Structure formats: structure tokens, C-alpha cells
């Protein structure tokens, strides 16, 4: 279960997944939201949804590569799926890039939820936010 970010409308209902499904979160998630609600009233995830599951905290301190300006890691050692650290929208904001066809002429699917369109296509009229 990969959290793009912590907002309740993006978390959904993790309880609908089997208990064997781990949670994968970005930088800052554990510090801000664990323990979960109700123990932490400011935490969007519910304790019942995470209890007993393993939480994997991704680190981009030494990224595998940089895609554009975003640190990225090769997920599960497979170069068909990359997770990008895309801060700015929220704590732990992540995006993914999936390679859908092989070289030559590889194609990709970008999985993103972005607050600022300029995070991915900066222009003179739509620049990156400074904070």
C-alpha cells in the first residue's frame, strides 16, 4: 500500500487490503503520523488500518538516480518502477514512474497527485514555488 501522501482522501481505506499488505511511506510520515488516530488526533491514518502491518519508510538520502530534479529510487530492484520524492504538496509526498515498454523507444506512465502543475512542467508563467 503506497501512500502518495497523507491526506485522508488519498489514503482511502487500507482495511480493504489483506493484512499481509505492508504500508510504504515517504520521508516525514512516521514522525508526523505515528502513532495513528485515535492516539494521535492529528493523524489521518487510523490505528486499526495500520496495526499489525509493517511500515516501510523510504529514504532518499542516497537516491539511486535523479529524474528531472526529483530524487528517485528503483522500487524492489526492478527498473520498471521508480518512486520519486516530490516535496511541496504535503509531508511525505511521493510520485511513481512506471516503464510500460522496453527500449528502444521506452514509454512511461507517470503516477502523480500534484498540488502545483509547475512541479513537473515549470515555465516562465508557472514557476516552481519557493517553499
SS elements, strand count: 7
Terminal-residue CA separation: 28 Å
Sequence stretches where pLDDT stays below 50 over 5 or more residues: none
What is the count of DSSP helices, taking H or I runs of 4+ residues? 3
What string gives the helices and strands in order? HEHHEEEEEE
**Strand line-up of the largest beta sheet:** 3-4-5-6-7
Strand content: 15-25%
Q: Roughly how many Å is the radius of gyration? A: 16 Å
**What's the overall geometry?**
globular
Can you put this structure into words, describing what you see?
By secondary structure, the chain is mostly beta strands. The protein has helices at 8-11, 29-33, 47-50, and strands at 23-25, 55-57, 65-67, 70-74, 81-85, 94-101, 107-111. The longest helix is centred in the first third of the chain and has 5 residues, at 29-33. It is globular.
Brief account:
This protein is mainly β. The protein has helices at 8-11, 29-33, 47-50; strands at 23-25, 55-57, 65-67, 70-74, 81-85, 94-101, 107-111. The strands form two sheets. A five-stranded antiparallel beta sheet has the order 3-4-5-6-7, with no helix packed on it. It has a two-stranded parallel sheet with strand order 1-2.
Keywords:
mainly beta, about 130 residues, 5-stranded antiparallel sheet, globular
Amino acid at each position: 500500500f503506497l501512500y502518495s501522501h497523507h491526506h485522508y482522501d488519498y489514503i482511502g481505506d487500507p482495511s480493504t487490503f489483506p493484512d499481509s499488505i505492508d504500508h510504504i511511506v515517504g520521508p516525514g510520515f512516521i514522525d508526523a503520523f505515528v502513532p495513528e488516530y485515535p492516539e494521535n488526533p492529528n493523524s489521518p491514518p487510523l490505528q486499526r488500518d495500520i496495526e499489525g502491518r509493517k511500515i516501510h519508510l523510504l529514504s532518499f538520502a542516497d537516491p539511486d538516480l535523479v529524474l528531472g530534479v526529483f530524487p528517485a529510487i528503483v522500487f524492489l530492484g526492478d527498473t520498471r518502477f521508480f518512486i520519486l520524492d516530490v516535496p511541496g504538496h504535503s509531508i511525505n509526498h511521493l510520485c511513481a514512474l512506471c516503464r510500460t515498454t522496453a527500449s528502444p523507444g521506452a514509454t512511461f506512465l507517470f503516477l502523480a497527485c500534484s498540488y502545483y502543475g509547475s512541479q513537473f512542467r515549470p515555465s516562465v508563467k508557472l514557476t516552481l514555488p519557493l517553499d
